[in-house]
Specification:
By secondary structure, the chain is α/β, with parallel strands linked by helices. Helix content is 32%, strand content 20%. It is built from 7 helices and 8 strands; from the N terminus they run E-H-H-E-H-E-H-E-H-E-H-E-H-E-E. It has an 8-stranded mixed sheet, with helices on both faces. Strand 5, helix 6 and strand 6 form a beta-alpha-beta unit. Helix 1 runs antiparallel to helix 3 and helix 6 runs parallel beside helix 7. It starts with a strand and ends with a strand. About 7% of the residues have low confidence. The protein binds S-adenosyl-L-homocysteine and magnesium ion. The site of magnesium ion has 4 residues, from loops.
C-alpha cells in the first residue's frame, strides 16, 4: 500500500518534488487548485489526480461534494488527460458545518437570499482550470442524482455530507456503480474521533468489512479502496 504523508498546508505552493510518488500537475492548474476555497491538501489532491489518470483511463469518474471545485480540479485535470468523462455532484447549499454560525461557514459564499451558494464559485473554478468543457456539474441532492444514474464508475470520490445519514446514503447509492477494478476514494477519514467526525470513517470501515474492497493508498485523511469483488 502506498502512503503519502500530507504536508497539511493547502495554501503552500511549494508542492513540486515533495511527493515523488505523485506527478505534479501542470503549473497553471496547480495554481488554480491551490487558490480555490475548499478542504483538500495538495498532497491529497495530487493523489486524486494520479488516481484519476490511472483509473479514469477505464471509465467514468464521479465526485460527490463539489463545494467550490478544489478537489474537482485535481480529479478533472487527470480525467481530461486520459479522456475520461467526469461528473461532480452537489446541491451547492453547503453541508451542516458550512451554515451560518457553524465552524466552516464562509460569509463570502452567501447569496442575495442569505443562503449558501457555491455554484458560481465552482463554475468559475472550472473556467479558470480550463475544465468547463470537460467536467459536468450535476446540481442536486446526491441521492436524487444517484436515482437517475445508470453508468458504471471507474472512480468514485465521496466527499459530500458528513452526517451519519448523508455519508451512509452516499455509500449505499453510489458504491454499487463502481466497476470491478474501479476505485472508491473517501475523504475525511479520521480513525481518531478527536481529529474529526466519524461518518466518513464508518463508511470506510463498511467498505472494508464488505469484503468487496481492498485498501490501495492513503494520503492525509484520504483513503483509496479498489473493488476486488462484487457481491
Ligand atoms: N470536495 C470539496 C469539499 C466538499 S464539502 C473540496 O475539495 O473542497 C461538502 C459538499 O457536499 C458541500 O459543498 C455540500 O453542499 C455538499 N453536500 C452535502 N450534502 C449533500 C447532499 N446530500 N447532496 C449533495 N451535496 C451535498
Ligand atoms: Mg472533505
Amino acid at each position: 500500500m502506498k502512503e503519502v504523508t500530507a504536508s497539511g498546508d493547502e495554501h503552500s505552493d511549494a508542492y513540486a518534488g515533495q511527493h515523488p510518488e505523485t506527478d505534479a500537475m501542470p503549473a497553471h492548474v496547480m495554481r488554480v487548485a491551490l487558490s480555490t476555497r475548499g478542504f483538500m491538501s495538495a498532497a491529497e489532491g495530487l493523489v486524486l489526480y494520479a488516481a484519476a489518470k490511472t483509473y479514469g483511463a477505464r471509465g467514468t469518474i464521479l465526485e460527490v461534494g463539489t463545494y467550490c471545485g478544489k478537489s474537482t480540479v485535481y480529479l478533472g485535470t487527470g480525467a481530461m488527460e486520459v479522456g475520461s468523462p467526469m461528473v461532480t455532484v452537489d446541491h451547492h447549499r453547503g453541508s451542516e458545518e458550512h451554515q451560518p454560525g457553524e465552524e466552516y461557514h464562509d460569509s463570502e459564499l452567501v447569496d442575495d437570499d442569505g443562503r449558501i451558494d457555491t455554484l458560481p464559485h465552482a463554475r468559475a473554478t472550472l473556467t479558470a482550470a480550463r475544465l468547463e468543457d470537460h467536467v459536468l456539474l450535476a446540481v442536486g441532492k446526491s441521492t436524487a442524482v444517484a436515482a437517475v444514474w445508470r453508468t458504471p464508475l471507474a472512480l468514485l470520490f465521496i466527499d459530500g455530507g458528513h452526517t451519519e445519514d448523508a455519508a451512509s446514503a452516499d455509500y449505499a447509492a453510489w458504491t454499487p456503480w463502481i466497476a470491478p477494478g474501479g476505485v472508491l476514494a473517501i475523504h475525511d477519514v479520521f480513525p481518531d474521533p478527536r481529529d474529526g467526525g466519524q461518518a466518513p470513517h464508518r463508511i470506510y470501515r463498511r467498505a472494508l468489512a464488505s469484503g468487496e474492497f481492498t485498501e490501495v493508498e492513503t494520503a492525509g485523511s484520504l483513503r483509496l479502496l479498489e473493488r476486488t469483488s462484487t457481491r
